[in-house]
Amino acid sequence: MLGVFACLAVLAGAALLASKRLGGSSHTHGHGVVATREDPRRSNSARGNTATGSGHAAQPVLLPFQFQHPPRAGLLFDLDTGRVLWALNPTERRPIASLTKMMTALLVVRSQHASARVHITHRAVNTAGSKVGVLPVGKYVRLETLLYGLMLPSGNDAAVALSERVAGSVPRFVARMNAEARHLGLSCTHYVSPYGLEDANRSCAADLATLARLDLAQPRIARVARSASAVQPLPIKGGKVWLYNNNPLLRYGYPGALGLKTGETEAAGRCLVGAARRGNVRLGVVLLDSPELGRQAEALLNRGFAEVYHLPVVKAPFVPKGM
User: What's 190's DSSP letter?
Assistant: First the structure.
């Protein structure tokens, strides 16, 4: 059965349809698109029939924004209503690198307790790409430690270990990822691994926005994703591992940053699904193949908070050029 967020926030289709209804283009810098969805924090009775599209529509938002060196694709959206505030090529399918791990994390927390013990195999430790790096072969590690290792330093080794715990093997876990993507209506999305190193792991900004809402609706993922760093138990010398988040919003202290995930490969470029809270408003941002993840995410979030929700500007720490 589809969950509340899945019913309300299939942003890929909603974004495209809304742009057509408004007579605008979702492929330009100057036209926003809007998903006509109610606030998922409200009760089912209060929402009425909005899941089927017959509820009260959110007002369109046309937030003009133009970058000197734009990302390849992106979205700015309200995490609680699904309303899109700015869009650039929102349904263009792109390699997504470690943004893949957003689906990995979702399937893990839905099926596994935080205190579950995960066996570390040779396959996990020998996985290429970014790693936690100190996982002890043959030993058992607390699952929540691996969830932090998956989301903060983007450990491919953690992704494989978690996949083997959930499904018994990586291929079976990937099959579950693709089945869940179909179940959620993520029509741009296809996975070939639980970590995203391969270029065939693909999605689009609209699908990733939907997945961001689902991830952040899970308290365990939300807690991990907003952590700039963490110290977790690990059966190695010293008994602990120190983990640090790659997310520029957290690294440079953007006020109210909530996470969520970064990714980078040569084919995907630098990618970010980020989120932040100001007052009672939570905004999400997706950037695919961006030359300046931190600066562009900060600029979009600031504009959304200030110009759409009329919230006061909050001074943020300086983000270096190129970050």
Answer: B
Q: Would you please indicate which residues are annotated as catalytic (active-site) residues? A: 98, 101, 154
Residue type, 282: R
Q: Which residue has the higher pLDDT, 51 or 141?
A: 141
Non-local CB neighbours of 72 within 8 Å, separated by 6+ positions: 89, 92, 94, 269, 288, 289, 290
Q: Does residue 5 sit in helix, strand or coil?
A: helix
Q: Where are the domains of the chain?
A: 4-308
Q: Is 81 helix (H, G, I), strand (E, B) or coil?
A: coil
The model's confidence at residue 62, banded by pLDDT at 50, 70 and 90, is low
Alpha-carbon Rg for the chain, nearest whole angstrom, is 19
Q: Which CATH class is domain 4-308?
A: alpha beta
Say how far apart CA 97 and CA 84 lie, in whole Å.
Answer: 23
State what percent of residues in the chain have pLDDT above 70.
Answer: 79
- pLDDT beyond 90 at 52: no
pTM above 0.85, yes or no: no
